[in-house]
Specification:
By secondary structure, this protein is an alpha/beta fold. The protein has three domains: 11-119, Immunoglobulins (Immunoglobulin-like); 135-548, TIM Barrel, CATH 3.20.20; 558-641, Golgi alpha-mannosidase II (Immunoglobulin-like, Sandwich), CATH 2.60.40.1180. 20% of the residues lie in helices and 20% in strands. The chain is built from 13 helices and 25 strands. The chain has helices spanning 145-149, 179-186, 234-250, 304-320, 336-345, 385-392, 411-418, 458-465, 471-487, 515-518, 524-527, 529-544, 553-559, and strands spanning 23-26, 30-36, 42-48, 58-61, 63-64, 69-75, 82-88, 111-112, 140-143, 190-193, 197-199, 217-223, 254-259, 325-328, 350-353, 381-383, 446-449, 491-495, 560-562, 570-575, 587-592, 598-612, 615-616, 624-631, 635-641. The protein has an eight-stranded parallel β-barrel. Strands 19, 20, 21, 22, 23, 24 and 25 form a seven-stranded antiparallel beta sheet that branches. It starts with 22 loop residues before the first strand and ends with a strand.
């Protein structure tokens, strides 16, 4: 029986390999095989005709090198054949694909030898990423491949598939745009997809029997087969995913992938542990697996070959699939040096993540990519959970309220989000409940949001905390939350369906709940069309006005001034738009989270009301006011000073 405790092993003594040729590579004349397995005494490569059944028709022994690698070359054309490895490190480990496997058969049981050129859809060589001048120009829309199209109301043919994103002109039964057409209509700049790499818990042969978000990784460089029209041929999922990328890019929308290099679904049985036992995982002092992920293990990102693997994998996705950014699940598990190396290798891509862990890690916090260490990670952003909880109440509690649901004393935390978590002289940080201090050095390091796939949807959270609220009051709260997210500095992030009040029926952790819970109900777009239009106008407003997209913390500190008149439940501030090139030279922002209308004193001058509650006005239609203005309960106003 193998001992899965590793406190007696010094992993730093393992030889490392710097080459870029790990994996299995096809040419018409030969297949080249190389893996890193420094503890192996013997490595066997097995070939199969099928991705699931049958006996190996060929076995060959790999040859060892002093750098910990094992390699062989097979003469002949093996395109379309499947393979595994079996490693003996003193006792035989289980049969497994290699850790770099890029193409797999059904359920990832075996790797597939393939010709990458055949996975490119027509016109792939002309695919171009949308331009993103500054990271703060992004408006991110988070969704799940299956959620996006599985509902009958989607009007999409390829329900729950990669190809669902490629269909244009789809409509709900009410005749309203769905799918890709909806994204274009809404105006978001980037789609963030929950994990699309091969994960374990959905049977690709019976994909509708189970559901999962995908945070149960099996193979990091291969795609999930349940999202493909044919899970048996590994090239199909690659080709169809490239079509998804192509469709989004053709619509001017970038693609961000959610990546989960913090843990694997299996620990002992993982492809890592069946290749180099123990090396890829952090251990507690007693040698057992550490568990900062809350999923039974955590990857040792600080080890040289783990860091290399993560960087190699990200570069593969970025280059082969033209990916525009990555979101790091539980980024607080990653060590700082690895995140710095990722930023250096991928300087143009959006990079952001969760600046926390799910449990304790043996790696000291000052070495990990948590929020308070973000000053060491320029160009990498973290989710602003301080702002999220200030807006709607504590994320894990049903009944707690926030600013938009009428709770007092959340004003400073709302201001904290408005300035993208950078230092600002007019914020009282003792009232920023979680962090108590700024943690972003630049606005591009802050992702502002009110909800995401985790926890309750915004609608459900507000419904639980305001059980007596009318439908109209609920709409107002959802709108106010969107207004705060989309006009604040930093990078705004929207949970798919929030723009028409998405509900999961009160489910707070739907990671394996059925489609009936997780699907986007496109029928709600008609019912809550006023909310959709409000979000749509806010996004366009943000795009039109650089005052909401400042690129430097110094600008925020100099050109945003909070009003000195304190009123409970009200946040008000002025923006010197002219200083950042905005046509709106002097802007007044007013937000009322209280349940009463509020008479608000204006700075000296005459002002045009550009936004009042639901109404957005053109300059020649705007009401002109001075001295004071009535700010409606649960609403936003934007005023622009009338120039002489």
């Amino acid at each position: 029986m193998r001992d899965w405790k590793f406190n007696h092993i010094d992993f730093s003594t393992y030889p490392c390999y710097a080459g870029d040729d790990l994996g299995v590579f096809w040419t018409p004349e030969k297949t080249i095989v190389k893996i890193w397995a420094p503890t192996a005494k013997m490595v066997e490569f097995r070939l199969y005709k099928d991705g699931k059944t049958g006996e190996a028709f060929h076995k060959t022994q790999l040859q060892a090198s002093g750098d910990g690698t094992w390699a062989t070359i097979l003469s002949g054309d093996y395109e379309g054949k499947f393979y595994t490895f079996r490693i003996d490190d003193g006792e035989w480990l289980e049969e497994t694909p290699d850790i770099y496997v890029r193409c797999v058969g059904v359920n990832g049981l075996r790797g597939m030898i393939f010709n990458p050129a055949k996975t490119d859809p027509e016109g792939w060589e002309n695919d171009k990423k949308p331009e993103l001048k500054h990271f703060t120009d992004a408006v991110i829309y988070e969704t799940h491949v299956r959620d996006f199209s599985i509902s009958e109301s989607s009007g999409i043919k390829h329900k729950g598939k990669f190809l669902g994103f490629t269909e244009e002109g789809t409509q709900s039964p009410d005749g309203l745009a769905t799918g890709l057409s909806h994204l274009k209509e809404l105006g978001v700049t980037h789609v963030h997809l929950l994990p699309v790499n091969d994960f374990f818990t959905v049977d690709e042969e019976k994909p509708l029997e189970k559901y999962n978000w995908g945070y149960d990784p099996l193979h990091y460089n291969a795609l999930e087969g349940s999202y493909a029209t044919n899970p048996y041929d590994g090239t199909v999922r690659i080709r169809e995913f490239k079509k998804l990328v192509q469709a989004l890019h053709g619509a001017g929308i970038g693609l961000i992938l959610d990546v989960v290099y913090n843990h694997t679904y299996f620990a002992k049985e993982s492809v890592f542990n069946q290749t180099v036992p123990g090396y890829f995982y952090r251990q507690k002092p007693d040698g057992t697996f550490a568990n900062a992920s809350g999923c039974g293990n955590e990857l040792a990102t600080e080890r040289i070959m783990v860091r290399k693997y993560i960087i190699d994998s990200l570069k593969y996705w970025a280059e082969e699939f033209h990916i525009d950014g990555f979101r790091f699940d539980l980024m607080g598990i990653y060590d700082l040096e690895t995140m710095k190396a990722i930023r250096k290798e991928l300087p143009e891509l959006l990079l952001y993540g969760e600046g926390w862990t799910a449990d304790q890690s043996p790696m000291p916090e000052d070495q990990r990519a948590v929020k308070r260490n973000l000053y060491q990670l320029p160009g990498i952003a973290a989710f602003n959970d301080d702002f999220r909880d200030a807006l709607k109440g504590n994320h894990s509690s049903k009944k707690t309220k926030g600013f938009v649901s009428g709770l007092d004393l959340r004003e400073e935390a709302v201001k904290f989000g408005a300035v993208a978590a950078v230092n600002h002289p007019e914020i009282v940080y003792d009232y920023v409940e979680t962090s108590k201090q700024p943690w972003a050095i630049q606005p591009e390091q802050c992702v502002n949001y009110a909800s995401c796939h985790d926890n309750f949807t915004l609608w459900d959270k507000l419904k639980f905390s305001n059980p007596k609220a009318s439908d109209e009051e609920m709409r107002k709260m959802v709108k106010l939350a969107g207004a705060l997210v989309l006009t604040s500095q930093g990078i705004p992030f929207l949970h798919s369906g929030v723009e028409f009040c998405r509900t999961k029926g009160g489910n707070s952790n739907s990671y394996k709940s059925p489609d009936s819970v997780n699907q986007i109900a496109w029928s709600r777009k008609k019912e809550y069309h006023d909310v959709f239009e409000y979000y749509q106008k806010l996004i366009q407003l943000r795009k039109n006005h650089p005052a909401f997209r400042m690129t430097d913390a110094g600008q925020i500190q100099k050109y945003i001034h909070f009003c000195t008149e304190y009123k409970i439940g009200v946040v008000s501030y002025c923006i010197e738009g002219a200083k950042v090139g905005d046509s709106w030279k002097n802007i007044v922002m007013l937000f009322n989270g209280s349940r009463t209308d509020n008479l608000q004193t204006l700075p000296e001058g005459t002002y045009k009301v550009m936004v009042r509650s639901d109404d957005f006005f053109e300059e020649n239609q705007a009401e002109v006011v001075s001295n004071e203005v009535e700010l409606q309960a649960v609403s936003m106003m934007i005023l622009v000073r009338k120039e002489d």
